[in-house]
Protein 1
Amino acid sequence: MADPKLLDILNKSIARELQVSIQYMWHHVQAVGLESPAVRDIFKQLAIEEMKHAEAFAERLDLLGGVPTTKPEPIMQGGSLTKMIQDDLKAEQEAVDMYREAIRLAIAANDPVTRLMYEEILAAEESHRKTFSDLLEK
């Protein structure tokens, strides 16, 4: 049986990825204004990428004997384009922090496959965080 702490953080990761996938897709739909066309495309692209992360976490959790959650974390909706981006930047920072902790747990559990998966997804989340940060500076 896999480490319970690792199973727990995998499920929390799934819930977070489901949250942002839905959140970014809603932001894609709700974004309005002169600046929105390019940002809408970014929201949509990242929503799809985040759903792939949720899938990877769910597959790993299932392989380790856990049951993947289907319930997302709370979804932030609406507001100005700036508020949407600020909400999304916050979500990405939370993911970076959580996935760094998950890497530590995977190392402690001697699970190099889970560690590697988290490291690869962490790199993507850091890139997403930079994308949102750059958008706020423009």
Protein 2
Amino acid sequence: MPSFESKAIDVVILCGGFGTRLGAEAKDRPKPMVDINGKPFLDILIGHVVSFGFTRIILCTGHKSQYIEDYYLKNKRVQALLISEEKAPLGTGGALKNAEHLIQSDSFVALNGDSFCPVSLKEFGEFHQKKKSQLSLALSHSKQTADFGSVMLNESNEIVGFDEKISKGNPGLVNSGVYLFNTDLLTKIEAGKKVSLEYDFFPSLVGNGMFGYVTEANLLDIGTPEKLSIARNLLV
């Protein structure tokens, strides 16, 4: 099996969040750009990606896209950073489809721009290759799954089902917002259509070569003021 070559693989970060639950924290900026101890949350994600040798990053923007564009045009973080702006909300799946023309690699890493799970992207990529997976999701342990929805695996780590935010808060595995796609999967998403990865696309692939990589890394998200405060305390 060939080694996982991060320099040859694109990374796509979903940055279209409105941050409505964050109130004043995100009033003038997209949710991924909220301040974490003096720098945007998105910088933390990019720093993690770059630490594994990735050099080409595509930011899927929407709400207040210009804020992101202005910041990263002035603050070069990677060898190549591109912007894929959606003119109307397309959902997480629609945003990836909108960026399809910019993706040059046969597979790509995708990250939610409003959560952080410091998974080893090298080990994740090797898992994806070993399983000959079409789509791999990094999964985190959670004491209660009501906020995230739980993911069910079989003995081979193939994903056999989802329970999206309707469980009763039991312990389980949750979607960490870190994915590895075979790029040709994007042909299954209709262009210009609003599509949710979590609710529409992932469930449609159950039983079709989708695997879950279980990590011990903790999942942080910044969706509420309380969770943002936790992130600021931990991401120092």
Protein 3
Amino acid sequence: MIRCTVFASLFVIVVSPIKAHAQPGHYDLGQKLRAFELAWEQNRDPAARRRALPVLKTVVPLLFAGQNPAAGRAFDQPRFLLRRAEEPTAE
């Protein structure tokens, strides 16, 4: 009896379709993180790194809150701040 129950439950698990839930935006976030890491490694100026650090600290809470677009912007802004002191324009 136990074998029939185990076999039946395995059959249901194997035969039933499993939905894969996509994680939209995670690939883009990974690309933005990678671009930021490259900019961080290329720019060794301590002043530029100090400018970028406060904005970078906001990324983790945004990721935990599930706010992927805001987290993407939070990755882009410190990358631009590593290049120049002024904020990037909307263009």
Protein 4
Amino acid sequence: MKSEVKMSGTRLQITRVFEAPRAMVFAYWTQVEKLQQWAGCKDATKVEIQADLRPGGSFTQKMQIAGQGEYTFSGTYEEIIDLRRIVYTAIMGSAAIRVTIEFFDEGEGTKVVVTQEGFPDPKLGHIVSLGMNESFEKLDELLAVVQNN
């Protein structure tokens, strides 16, 4: 399934159904070694993530992007509810973006709804939506391989 993307003002929402159980999908968002396998746009040649996954904990994601150099963003986790929700604030340049990721059972799969609020302009929201969709494509492929092994 492709992602459903909605951009409205400073708010971006991306919804996608992954063909994997919620516990597995949640693990790929909350275990650094798994997250590094799929996070980042398709041109990311290397992704390094450091994270203290707890409310009040911080994270840094550093990506090497082919032809563009290094891009780093960081943030702080506000809420983590096992198998249900992750909330954090990400600092992207001078913008503080509040991100809420929700996980729902959808048949035998998992619906993930990512809501990001606080974009200073639609251009940044559009760039982020492209990168997230490319990441989600990689996650789809990874989950299919894991389930077939």
